[in-house]
Amino acid sequence: MKTLAIILFILMYVLLIIFKKHRAKIAIATAIIFVVTGILPYTQVFAAIDWNILLMLFGTMVIVDYFIESKMPNLIADKLLDLAPNVMWVTILMSLFAGIISAFIDNVATLLMVAPVGLAICKKLKISPVSMIICIAVSSNLQGAATLVGDTTSIMLAGAAKMDFNDFFWMQGKPGIFFAVELGALATVPIMMILFRKDKEPVHSDERTVVTDYIPTITMLGHVIFLVFASFFPNKPELTNGIICMVWGIINIVWEIIVSKGTDSMWHSLKAIDYDTMLLLAGLFCVIAGITNVGLIDDLAHIIAGAGKDNVFLLYTLIVFGSVAISAFIDNIPYVATMLPVLASLAGVMAVNPLLLYFGLLIGATLGGNLTPIGASANIAGVGMLRKEGYEVSFGDFMRIGLPFTLTAVVVGYLFIWIVYA
């Protein structure tokens, strides 16, 4: 049974890498095979799926779509333009702005919000938008791990480590992963100043975005505040965070139906939800439960522990930079979903704080995607946007910015987590 599970798992991973547009189908099909072959008993399927994560994703995606449609992010971008004296600082401020938004909103959604503003600025100044859009894309990826709702991998980490919103800021009496990510983000500012030191053309904006609907902003803030508030209650139901996100999403839908006297906005929001990612996760949850049942997770933990030669620092380093290398070429969602239970078992084997390994995994896997234009969905979306504008981006063009960004942010986060949690 274990051999069959290994073969199916490896085959699934290979297919996920080759057929990116069919990831959800591949994961669900593998999960069905696991159930049919008895690797995962059908009685365990419902329990294997983390419904809290799926509810959080669904509710947050609804809120994000309304927030984007409200044009509030564009208004904030207009304000930032007033602060920038030249193109270099526009690029830096737009990148930091994208990072801040990405701490609370999906990376691709962040790119879709901020990149059009960057394109408009570059057209006005008659300069190439390639560098600015790449910076916005990598910044969107960079800060996705900063908060509970910033990225799918953060939500998965929270489920594995039983973390609440506040735990990303302060965990076990120590500064959380938020500070590791933000320090890494700040460290990239000097990198951008060096990369764009020649871009000193003055810039200004005569246009002003008009926001007529502030309810999406209220629901965006409301669901974050409620997640923070819920963090203070111990032993709460496992679905608490998911229900909070769903309720605020429903409030937004109902309000918009009442105001617009129709359901067009609701259907727009529901269509914008990334159902493929949700189905992918549901399938992966079942597959991981299956390989855990047959003992494969424990086997992997012992293999990795052996590679680390019982040296925690070496093991931690392998996890961080191995994750960077892997995530540069494959999607980090299935990778993180696979590794979280492995690291939980590994922490028990080596008697180390699991947070050290969890946070190291997220630092490497989240930031590693910035190395290449195919390493993260936001990068792919950004390159696609540039292609539509007539700009082809090569691996070299992307890595000129992605490589120093990634190495700087990863090293800073890597050192911070080791110093605080080792």
UniProtKB/TrEMBL annotation:
It comes from Butyrivibrio proteoclasticus. The chain crosses the membrane at residues 26-42, 49-68, 88-121, 177-196, 217-233, 239-258, 279-297, 312-330, 342-361, 398-421. Residues 13-364 form the Citrate transporter-like domain. It comes from the Bacteria. Keywords: Cell membrane, Membrane, Transmembrane, Transmembrane helix, Transport. This is Possible tyrosine transporter P-protein. GO terms for molecular function: arsenite transmembrane transporter activity. PANTHER family: P PROTEIN. It is a multi-pass membrane protein. InterPro entries: Arsenical_pump_ArsB (IPR000802), Cit_transptr-like_dom (IPR004680), Diverse_Ion_Transporter (IPR051475). One of its GO terms (cellular component) is plasma membrane. The keyword Membrane applies. Belongs to the CitM (TC 2.A.11) transporter family. It is found in: Cell membrane.
